[in-house]
Amino acid sequence: MTTELVLLGTAGAPFPVAGRGGISSVLIVDGRVFVIDCGRGTPSAFANAGLGFPRLEAVFLTHLHADHIGDLPGLLLYSWGGRTGDDGPLPPIHVYGPPRPGALPAGDAAFHRETTICPGLPAPGTTDLVGHILAGYAYHLNVMPLDCHMPDAGALVRATDIPVPARSDGAQVPVVVFSDGAVRVTAVAVTHGRAVPAFAYRFDTADGSVVFSGDTTVNGDLIALAQGADILVHQVADLGYLQRHGITGADLERMAALHTDVTEVGSVAERARARELILSHYLPAEPAAITEAEWAQRAGQGFSGITTAGHDGLRRVLPRAT
Ligand SMILES: [Zn+2]
Fold first, then answer.
1. Where does residue 307 fall: left (phi above 0), alpha (psi -120 to 50 degrees), or beta otherwise?
2. Ligand 1 mean position to 180 CA, how many Å?
């Protein structure tokens, strides 16, 4: 039994930057591959990390902003032809993620929408998203099998909307998303502006535990979920940097309602009593903006464990539980 973390991409926000891939992480549990978020460049980063597409078992989406799901179609469709093994067709790839929100979040005076896309379903959930990907690529899925021997397209993917249980005593109830004896995945809703719901995930295996914050402000439910984790992969933003580069006033307040600042993430890891804090989903995303050493030094303030500035391709093998 081994459990290994790989960071495929560590950039925050949708706008592409040179030198850093979009947000995506992988947990490999005894050769089984679980992907957390599917940002820009995920399929190529997956291949570059030496991971086998036939071993891809499930994808967990933290929320449905494009920087977290933009390359989900490619991850599903590029490897479609390889979804067969020695014993025949492989099981479908499972995609877990947020359900439709209860209502389309309202804008405000500064950020009203001029056009509402798809007014009949303006805020689709994960099963809607996957259904729409299949519908949008129906040409490929229906026509390519006429020229190439392809696995059954109907067995390519299964999507699941993660329920968001009612709060009890003001705290979120963690949801066991997946559990099979070797790996248990637990989700809790976090706070990321109007991206409702947005999830953090905790993976527990015999080797230890890894928690992925997703995008969130400082969040007590995430801290509860991450108690005693071996590794906490946490997003990080430098709001002061953004302020110095022209994001001020109400715009800065909105950014602060979306993300955990570099001055806050160390105390989050400390309160979670995590063993190692690994930074990811950098904002600003440009590698030249802030060095990894500076990110780690500043983020580690107030944290008595190990702070590591994550980078694309970083790998960590979990210690076996004693
Ligand atoms: Zn993001």
1. beta
2. 29
CA–centroid distance, 87 to ligand 1, in Å, is: 38
What gap in Å lies between CA 212 and CA 35, rounded to an integer? 11
- Tokens in use for 53? 């597409």
pLDDT digits 0-9 by tens, 160-219: 999 987 766 767 789 999 999 999 999 999 999 888 899 999 999 999 999 999 999 999
- Token look-up 């066991």 returns 176
Confidence at residue 111, expressed as pLDDT on a 0 to 100 scale: 62
97 CA from centroid of ligand 1 (Å): 14
- The CA distance from 27 to 83, in Å, is 20
Amino acid at 166: A
Residue 205: count of CB within 10 angstroms of its CB: 21
| 120-153 pLDDT per residue, tens | 998 999 999 999 999 999 999 999 999 999 999 9
CA end-to-end distance (rounded Å), the chain: 13
Q: Which residues contact 255 (CB under 8 A, 6 or more apart)?
A: 237, 239, 242, 247
Classify residue 185 by its DSSP letter.
Answer: E
Alpha carbon of 13 to ligand 1 centroid (Å): 5
Ligand 1: distance of its center to the CA of 12 in Å? 5
Position 319: which residue type? P
